[in-house]
Each structure stands twice: as C-alpha cells, then as structure tokens.
Amino acid sequence: MEDYDSILIEEKLLNGVNIGEDHGWQTVSYQKKNKKQSLKKQPEDDWNAGVESSGGDVFRSIEEHAEERRKRIVEAQKLYEAENSTAVIDNGNGEEYGSSDGENAAAVSGGAVVEKKSKPKKAKKPKVTVAEAAAKIDNSDLVVFLVDISASYEKQEDIQLMRFADYFGRAFAKVSSSQFPWMKILRESAVEKMVDIPLSQISEDVYKTSIDWLNQRSFDALGSFVLWSLDSILADLVQHQGASKGSKKVVQQVPSKSQVAMFVVLAMVLRRKPDVLISLLPIMNENAKYQGQDKLPVMIWAITQACQGDLIVGLFMWVHFLLPMLSSKSNSNPQARDLILQLAERIVSLPKARAILMNGAVRKGERVVPPSALEVLMRITFPSPSARIKATERFEAVYPTLKEVALVASPGSKAMKQITQQIMLFAIKAVAEGVPELTREASELSMWCLTQNPDCYKLWDNVYLDNVEASLIIIKKLSSEFKVHSAKGPGLDPLKVALNSIRLKSEKALASVDDAARQASLKEVQKHSKILLGRLSHGNGCVKALLLIGITVAVGAAFVSKDLQSLDLKKLLAVVSKDLQSLDLKKLLADLNLA
C-alpha cells in the first residue's frame, strides 16, 4: 500500500503538481452546517491538523528524487531546442522561419547553407485607354475580315456576328477594367452623355464599314445577337454585385476587359436596326433579368442607342418598358425616376421631335402611347397636392407632347372609336376623385371623347349610375362650354338622347336611394340636365324660325317683283333648297349665342 501511494505522489510531482505542506490532502468543509455540529467536530479537526503538521518530512526523499528527474527532463528539452533553432524553413511564399528574429540571410542545417530567395518583380503592363485601342483598328483590315467571315460562314449569320464581336474583343483586349469602369460610368453619367459611350471613340470609317455590314444581316439574327450582348453585359454586372439569393442557374461570365467590345458592337446594331429592341420587348418585360434598379442604367443606355437610329423606337420603349416602373411603388426611387425622366425629356426636346412623334404614333399596328399609358401619365402628372414632388413639374413639361401622341387618330376611323371609348372609361372615373388638377384634365379628356365619337354618349349613359358625381361635373362643363362643344361636336341629337336617359335614370334612382348625399347628387344631375335640354330645344326652335323667315322673305321678294309672269317657282324652290343644304347649322348655333 505504501508503494502504491509513493507511485501516485511521484506521478504528481513529475506532472508539476505542488503537493505542499498538506501532502496532497485537502480538507473539505461545509459552511452551512449548524453551530452544534461544528462544535462537536472541532476536537477531531484539531487532531488531524496536528498529525499533518507532525508528518511533514515523511515524503522528503521522494520529492528530492522527483525534482532531480524533472530538472534532467527540462535540460534535455532545452538542448533539443538549441540544436534545431538554426534550421531555416521556407513557407512557400518566399518567407523564412527558424531564426529568433527572422532576419538571417542564411542558416546552417546539416552542414548545408540555405540562402533566402528573393521574389521576382512583375513587369508592369502599360495602360491602354479605350481611345488608344480604338485608334489602332485598321478599317482596311476590318473590311478584309468581314469579307472573309461572310464567305466562310455564308449561311451561319449567328457565327458571323460572334466573329464580328470577337474582332472588336481582340482590339480592346488590352483595355483593363480600370480604364473602362462601365458600371461607374453609367451610374454617374447623365443620359445626354450616355449616348456617346463608348462609340464616340470609334472612327467614322470603322463605324460606317461595320453598320453597312450589319445592315445585310437578317432581322432575327440581329435580334438574337442583341439579346446575347445584353446578357453578357448583365452577367458581368451580376458577377461584380454578387449572384442574387436563390439563383441556382450558373451564368457564364465574361471578363470585364472585353465589355468595351460588347458595348461597341451592341451600340452599332441598335443604331442601325433599332426595331430589334421592340421585337425583344416581350422577353424583357417577362424576364426579371432585364428589370430592377441595378439594371436600369444599362437598359436606358440601350434605349438611347436605339433613339439615335429612330426616335419613335425610343419613345415606344420608354412608354412600354420604363413607364411601368414609375407606376410601381416598389420599383421607383428618386434616382430611377430621374434617369427615366431624363430620357423622356431628351426625346421630346430633340429638333422636330413633335412632328416625328405625331407622324409615327402607331408602330407595327401598336400605338406608341396607348390609352393605358396615357392614364398612368395623367395620374403621375396630376397627383394630389400633398403627393407632389420635385419631379412633378418635369412630368408636366413632357405630358402635353405625350398626350398629343396618344390622341392622334383619323376622325371617324376605327382607331379613333377605340381610343375614345377606352379613354372615356378611365377619364370619367378620374373626374370625381376630388383632386382638382386631375379633375380638370380628366374632364377635358371626357369632353374630347364626346366630340370625337358619338358612341361615347351611349357609353357615358351606360356607366352613369356608377359615376353620378363625375357625370354632374361633365354636364356642368357641357353647359358652360355649350358654344364650343356644339361647334366641335358630331351633332346635338346624341347629347339630347343621353341627357334624357340620364334624367330618367336619376328619377328612378331617387325612389330607391336612402343616402342623403347621393340623393342630392341625383337631384343636381336632374336639374342641370333639364337646363341643358331646354337650351338644346331653344336652339332648335330658333333654327326652324330662321329657316321659315328666310323662305318667307324669298317668296315675298318674288311676288313683289315687277315681272311676276317670269317667276319660275320651281327654280326658286331649288335655290332655297340648295341654300338650306349649304347652311352650316353648327356655325349658326354659335352665332346665335345660345350659351
């Protein structure tokens, strides 16, 4: 038993455990015992303490032996460290370890001298700007290249276009991303300056040779090429911003240094064949890849390139692709709104822009500014006073031109009937929304629809009970502008029919309506309808009276003629009839001052 205890104590000494005076024993006491128990055990504790103090020299020889062994182990360890302290270790990065200060140039290891290796300095590549790379493009070499690929891939236009892009890719290969930080350039540039990025660096000869060759490619091939080019640019954008969360599709990335070429060739195609962008609109509207605030500068840049080739295409893309972003609260912010407005301002301010846009109001059977877009524009331009922002005044500046383009149609045509009915439906709803500026604009649109299409009276009658307040405002406006409306309108009969129907519907509705406010509105409609109908009847009576007076005067003049026998009554009646047919009733009503 004593041998076993000795072994345990020796192991503790070797492991550095300090036994001390209590020889490894520890007294455990419980402080929460009551006083009686502590008093009973006090003599026993005193006895144990005496034994421990008297037996301090029992293990002294063992401690001395263990101390000697520990000293030998420490000395051996120090000797081993001293022998290996001069070894030089290379970590693979050109740095050496082993010496205490890490600065020894050489060290001895096994009798061999290891010298520190120095890193070779990389030669700095010369920086090449976009202008310098563009200046080195030889037009004659480009001509030969285009002839060669046209012959080699005669029936493979997609490959021809890829090789065309490769040619410019090699030309701009030495332009680093620092020389063409396109994302920063587009974010910080105004739309006016975006137009020339980076095509302004290309010489006229190279540009003309390129677009002439592109003009010979098919429309479908160019459409696929434009989509591929946009995808390459947007893929580079995603690469720099980080892939979107939840996106599992791996997109092949294009090095940034080749993006100069992508922008150059894409700009050339869009300027030469801008209609390609319209053909891609369904894909761009359905795929989120082409939407979002981060993609907006790229898409606006592409539309500005198309504007250079065809202003109508630019406005078409603005209305059908960019305008919906403004109507969506989740997608609109001041920066995006500013960029979109800049493009609209540029389009309408170009020389002869109004004439060009009015003549091209319909593109490929589709209206450039359809009625649905006009409604969005109207609501953005005429918000409530509390919702007005700095951009509202800018919308007010471009709205008149865009409105004119939206209302262009031949009088009496099928297109005119369609747009007037569509506009009438949303305008009559906007009239009664309680926004003063919006009410004024919507009322004017409603009046325009009534003057351009008699069927709009019937449409108004059909939706009257759902729009009583708006109808009251329109009737008052018709009454106050009766002269103007009667001169411009298609006739007064459709108005009379509509007013009579509205008056009868109001009477029936009053019998079943309990709401006091609605009753008051219905009564007001009845009142003003009767007034306007009375003026219409008075106008017709005056016209008939004037006609009778005219006939009487003519016949009387004939009877008082000296040569009564030579009077040809048939001829007289024919003259009177001709005069009646040529009578301008609208002008006559206006001259009578019926308002």
TrEMBL record:
It is a multi-pass membrane protein. It comes from the Eukaryota. One of its GO terms (cellular component) is endoplasmic reticulum membrane. The keyword Manganese does not apply. InterPro entries: TMEM214. Residues 31-55 are annotated as: Disordered. Pfam families: TMEM214. Its main location: endoplasmic reticulum. It is found in: Endoplasmic reticulum membrane. Keywords: Apoptosis, Endoplasmic reticulum, Glycoprotein, Membrane, Transmembrane, Transmembrane helix. The keyword Ribonucleoprotein does not apply. Belongs to the TMEM214 family. Constitutively interacts with CASP4; required for the localization of procaspase 4 to the ER. Critical mediator, in cooperation with CASP4, of endoplasmic reticulum-stress induced apoptosis. Required or the activation of CASP4 following endoplasmic reticulum stress. This is Transmembrane protein 214-a. It comes from Nicotiana attenuata. The lineage of its organism: Eukaryota, Viridiplantae, Streptophyta, Embryophyta, Tracheophyta.
